[in-house]
Amino acid sequence: MQQQLENLKESYKLSSQQVEDAVNPLEVAALFEENQVSYVLIGGHMLSYYTGTARATVDVDFIIGGSDFERASTMIDKAYNQFKQNDKIYHITYDTKKNINTDRERIDLIKDGFPLFGKIVRQYCITIRKNKHVIKIPTIEAAIALKFAASISPNRGDQNKPIDNADLMRLIISTNKFNDKVLMELGELIYTTGGKELVKTVVDIKAGAQVNL
Questions:
Q1: What is the DSSP string of 190-202?
Q2: By C-alpha distance, which of 151, 68, 155, 137 is closest to 109?
Q3: Taking 90 as the threshold, does the pLDDT of residue 4 lie above it?
Q4: What is each CA distance from 6 to 55, 135, 159, in whole angstroms?
Q5: Is 80 exposed, middle or buried (0-12, 13-18, 19+ CB in 10 A)?
Q6: Count H helices, E strands: the chain?
Q7: CA angle 11, 170, 124 (to 5 degrees)
Q8: pLDDT tens digit sequence for 33-52
Q9: Of the chain's two ends, which shows fewer C-beta atoms within 10 Å, N or C?
């Protein structure tokens, strides 16, 4: 666990080298913990935790429990007023004010309206505690389900598909044990019969088979 948290810290350091106004996910989590906000960290920083490989990512991503969403956004507005709020209906981003054309997002707060998101925030997340740090992340099954959903989503764009597929493979390969019943349950929240497809994908990748999503 200690090394996994170190990977999370290292991913922030790498992110800071890529963008000078990068946000530390542990600091945002501390804010949510202090104010009893229901949340879970996802995205690139979560992947660093599970895969054991730190990676730079320009934003931090959190799913926020529905009843806490407005409070969470108010907290971020106040604590990170160097960023510009951008309301995108299903989520709110906090974007850099620097004069750049791409990769402007620094914090992304996602509503839990999608059934998979709500289930993860309410049931399939774990709390990591080490020294002064506390942060909630999805269980490994939930992390895989999230990345599976991203891999098959038509909204992610062709440029993101190879990255999503590679991330999904890394998550699956990095872990020896999975709860197939949980994978099945979460997959069904993505689409009907998604549970069987998700379990089959995990089994095939673990076996070294070629998988096309």
A1: HSTTHHHHHHHHH
A2: 68
A3: no
A4: 12, 13, 30
A5: middle
A6: 9, 7
A7: 80
A8: 999 999 999 999 999 889 88
A9: N
Decide yes or no: CATH 3.30.460 for domain 1-138.
yes
Helix then strand then coil, % of the chain, to nearest 5: 50, 15, 30
162: Cα separation from own chain's centroid: 17
Residue type, 24: N
Classify residue 20 by its DSSP letter. Answer: T
| Residue ranges covered by each domain of the chain | 1-138, 140-213
How many Å is the Cα radius of gyration of the chain?
A: 17
Distance CA 30, CA 39 (A): 11
pLDDT > 80? residue 159: no
Cβ–Cβ under 8 Å, residues 106 and 94: yes
| C-beta separation of 107 from 83 below 8 A | yes
Q: What are residue 91's DSSP bridge partners?
A: 110
Strand partners, 128: 135
Which DSSP string corresponds to 86-122? EE-SSEEEEE--SS-SS--EEEEEEES-SHHHHHHHH
pLDDT of residue 3: 59
pTM confidence score: 0.92
How are strands ordered across the β-sheet holding 91-95? Answer: 39-42, 60-64, 105-111, 91-95, 84-87
Contact between residue 132 and residue 33 where contact means Cβ atoms under 8 Å apart: no
- Pull the structure tokens for residue 149: 């959903």
